Structure formats: C-alpha cells, structure tokens
Amino acid sequence: MVEFPPRRKPSRKGSMADVPKDLLEQIKDLERLFTVDQAKLKEVTDHFVKELEKGLSVEGGSIPMNPTWVMGYPDGHETGTFLALDMGGTNLRVCEIILPEEKGEFEIIQSKYRMPEELKTGDSEELWEYIADCLQQFIEYHHEVEDLADMNDKKHKLPLGFTFSFPASQEYIDHGVLQRWTKGFDIAGVEGKDVAPLFEAALEKRSLPIKLSALINDTTGTLIASHYTDDTMQIGCIFGTGCNAAYMENCGSVPKIAHYDLPPDMPIAINCEYGAFDNEHVVLPRTPFDLIIDEDSPRPGQQAFEKMIAGLYLGELFRLVLVDLHDNKNVKIFEGQDIGKLHKAYSLDASFLSFIEEDPFENLSETGELFAKELGIQANKPELELCRRLAELIGTRAARLSACGVAAICKKKNIQSCHVGADGSVFNKYPHFKARGAQALREILDWPKGKRDPVDIRAAEDGSGVGAALIAALTIKRVKAGNLAGIRHAEGMV
Predict the structure, then answer these.
(1) Which end of the chain is less congested by CB atoms within 10 angstroms, N or C?
(2) H-type helices in 143-234, by residue range?
C-alpha cells in the first residue's frame, strides 16, 4: 500500500524565470513526453470501450472482465450481523458489521492484523492458518465463549464476506480461482487453484462458527457499498497501489456466461481488472521510462495501464527520469553530488511526489529539505523547479489516463449521469488527482462548460468491509428467494 503524509496547505505556483537554458529545454522535452492531450484521451477511451467488450466475449481479451455473481444492488433493507475479512497487501482486517432496520445504515467494529512479509512468499498452508488465527482472535474477543459454543451446538454460523483483492475467476460467488498473485505476494502452488477450500479447511480445523458466503474483490465491494448509501453510484473504482473498476452489466451483454441461460436483463456486477488494458501496446502513450518499468517488473508485458497510473509506479517513473537526466552529459543537474540513493529501484513512492506538489513555498524549501533528508542531495532552486514540474507531469498524466477507464464504462453503458465511488491512496491523498481526472472526463465526454459535471467521481464507502458484508447479505437473500445462480454451497447459508 502506498503511504501518504497528512494533507497540507495549498501548493504554490512555480516560476521558471531563474531556470538555466539546458534545464528549460529538458523541462519542455518532459512536457512533450508526459502530456496527454484531448485527442489522445479520446483515442485511448475509444480503444478501451472495444477492449471492455472483448473481455466480456467468449474468446476474451487482455482485460479479464470477471463476472462476480453479485446479482444486483442492495435495496437498503438488508439486515443482520456479518463478518468481513479484508486481505490486502499490508494488513489483514477483520470486521463485524451490523445492518440495522434503518435503510442505508450500518454499524462496524474492526481490528487490523499485520500481514507478515515472510508469509507473502512462504507456504500456502501457513498463510491460511494465520488468517484463521486472526479470525479466531477477533471473534473470541468480541463474543463470549459461551455464545460461540452455543453457535456451534446449533450449527449457526456467522456469514462472512471475504475481500480477496487479487485477480480471481469465479464460476460461483463463494469460490474463486486465483489467476495471479499481485501486491508482492508470490506463494507457490496457489495460482490456478480455488482459494475457498484452502481457507475453509483452516476454519474447520479450529471449529470456528463461520460460513464463507461470498468471495469478493475490493473494487466490487466499493461499488456495492457506495450504492448502498448513494443509489446514483454506478461505478466503483480503485486508484491506489493498483487500479481497477467494477460496474453492473446485464447478463445478456456477457456472452461468456450465456450457457447459464440467465434472464438477459438480470444484472451482474463485473470486476474489470482493467489494469491489464492495452497489454498489446496499441494505444497508450508509453515513454522510454514506462518501457523500463515494464521490462524490469516481475511480469513484463502485463498490467500495461496500471504501470502508467498506479501509485506503486509513480515514484519509480520520477526516479528513472532524474537518473537519466543526471547521466546525460548535456544536462547539468546534481553536479558533484552523490546520487547513490537515487540509483535504488523503487526507493521513491507516490508520497514523495505528493510532498513535492504540496510544497507551498516559492523557493521550494520543503522540497529541498526532502531531497537532502531522503536522498542526500543538495539541490539548487532551478533543479528543484525541474523536479517540481516533473512531479506535476507524472501526477497529471496518471490522473488524466485514469479518467479514460471511467469514461469507457460510461460510453459502453451509455451512462449520461451518475456518481462514481472511488477509493485508494492515490485518489484520496494525491494532490489535485480528483480535479485533474474531472478535467479529463470533461474533455473526453465533451460536456458543456459552466454546468455541473454529469459524471462525478466521489469518495467511496468502505468496499472491503461494509461492501463485503453487504454482498454476503445479498447472497443469503438470493438463497432464500431460490435464485442460486453462481452459488455453489448454498447449504448452511440460511
């Protein structure tokens, strides 16, 4: 997860008056390299729409477009007590969520547990044992031992929504086959396997009164939780360490599930996993630095879109450009300085750029202090101006390209007006990200000036907690109604 410092006062406007000619020329080159104009935004969006369609087809495409078996939105009248488990890259979060009688309301208690680094590349069984241990600690702390024994005697189990935020294909909502590990995980023998039985075996071993009701992705949870409190939300997005979106499709528009013979107008949430957009490198305006990031990544050729806009890569882009400028004999930058720390890959994250963009002082004194403290570099004012402009260019490009995915879903579904629920550290904390993304949407969708934006990207509700609980509730509601499409183990859910 990308960690950002607390938000600070508004940033100042830069001045290039004292920047030497060689650095000014480099700044202009960088502007040409990283600027995405309106025509390019539209070209990317049009190709995006085609790729979304291809992902829903029987043949498939680069974008997985995974059906989630979440068949519709909550109506606000879901009730009960539910557990939610959120397995992210840094922490494991366990929540108990109570959905009361009041429409759109919820109560939540939660605990966080650190995800040990050694587990991310360790043994599969150790991972599931650790997760089950955390769940056991949580329910023993929040429930009387007698209550737990009573639950087991009566075979009453707490329904659980499991936010498993890794690409997974699902033929059933209570199962999921891991397509590939991301977020620094690389545990052998799990890719290509159904993770539900592995998780359930660890629960069974401890006789925990828990029933896995739904395995979900955090982006799908974001869509459902946001719609629960605001029924104009039609798209859920994540802009953080990675990027993704989910939206509600009609079953009749998803050829790859046609064999289920579902009513064509029945809704089904699609988890796009669109970080993989344009893996074929047809349309995205990649720079030489984007190529290096891809080539040096654990999985070259994958997640092309994500590598241009996600928080994990923004700092690395910045670092690569600065190293390249320093190595260029025609450019005088950081002369006579030891830039050894700058040579370490992924030593800078998106929060470094965020700090630079929020420096409120005309002389960029806070940026200078940051370079001295983190990199041991004493940068002069012109060098700091270049770094400031580079951070703006990288941050702006990420925000503008991120709008293409939202615009593509709007165009595909002919959505004229809606709210979009967005979450993730970059969306929530990177300066100007929301405003830059909104401006790009205006340019792509040709909205008239001076009127309120018809598609408004807003902060989402808690998708991995409340969203997971709601999806568990929706699944149980479907079992009670006899709608068992995409549910493998309905027994024990009611």
Answers:
(1) C
(2) 145-153, 195-205, 218-229
Task: For residue range 448-489, list pLDDT tens digits in order.
Answer: 888 899 999 999 988 889 999 999 999 999 999 888 888 888
147 included as an active-site residue: no
Q: Are the beta carbons of 252 and 493 closer than 8 angstroms?
A: no
Q: Is 180 marked active-site?
A: yes
Tell me the β-bridge partners of 67.
270
Query: Do 400 and 36 contact (CB within 8 A), yes or no?
Result: yes
Query: Residue 246 in contact with residue 431, Cβ under 8 Å?
Result: no
Please check the confidence at residue 34 and state whether its pLDDT lies above 90: yes
The three-state secondary structure class of 233 is: strand
Of the residues 180, 286, 458, 488, which is catalytic? 180
Q: Which of 218, 294, 359, 423 is catalytic?
A: 218
b (16+ CB within 10 A) / e for 69-102:
bbbbbbeeebeeebbbbbbbbeebbbbbbebeee
Catalytic residue among 165, 213, 402, 425: 165
- What is the DSSP code string of 428-454? HHSTTHHHHHHHHHHHHHTPPTTS--S
Sequence letter at residue 102: E
Answer whether 0.85 is exceeded by the pTM. yes
| β-pair type (418-423, 455-459) | parallel
Please tell me the predicted confidence (pLDDT) of residue 6: 60
Mean of pLDDT over the chain: 91
What six digits make up the tokens of 219?
């982006």
Q: What are phi and psi of 305, to 5 degrees?
A: -65, -45
**Does residue 93 have an active-site annotation?**
no
